[in-house]
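Course assignment 3, question 2. Fill in each field.
Student: A.L.
Task: Predict the tertiary structure for the chain below.
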Amino acid sequence: MASLKEVLTRKPVLATVRLTIPAGGAKPGPPVGPAVGQYKVNLMAFCKDFNARTQKYKPDAPISATVTVFKDNTFELNLRSPSVTWYLKKAAGIELGSGRAGHVVASTLTPKHIYDIAKVKQSDPYCQYMSLEAISKSIIGTANSMGIKVEKELK
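Answer field:
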């Protein structure tokens, strides 16, 4: 339950916009400009903020951004690291997962790959209270559904 002070100081929300933008690639043009600009947000401030906060990722990494626009034309930016499937495809060196997961193996990875992805995903707000083991198990499940086999040693 929010306290009275929080309720009184909370800004009224105009809109919530969800975007997927390549890391460090926010520009005032499409898709960012039309999506965020229609709410009279300062696009240059948005682009600078997004690009500064995504410097640690590879330039082609798709970052999920949730932009909360307030009625006074200010905004709040929440970022999530790239999806597990993107990391798995990059680690396995494939473009797509298997069309017949469980029957056809698209690629294989080691537990070290899974652990590295879990370390990155642990920084996400929705995973911060999960153990590394739980995140790793979830990633292994995703890998299995993509047709990526996790083996102790690569042959």
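Instructor remarks: The first strand starts at residue 13 and ends at 22. The mean pLDDT is 88.
Grade: pending
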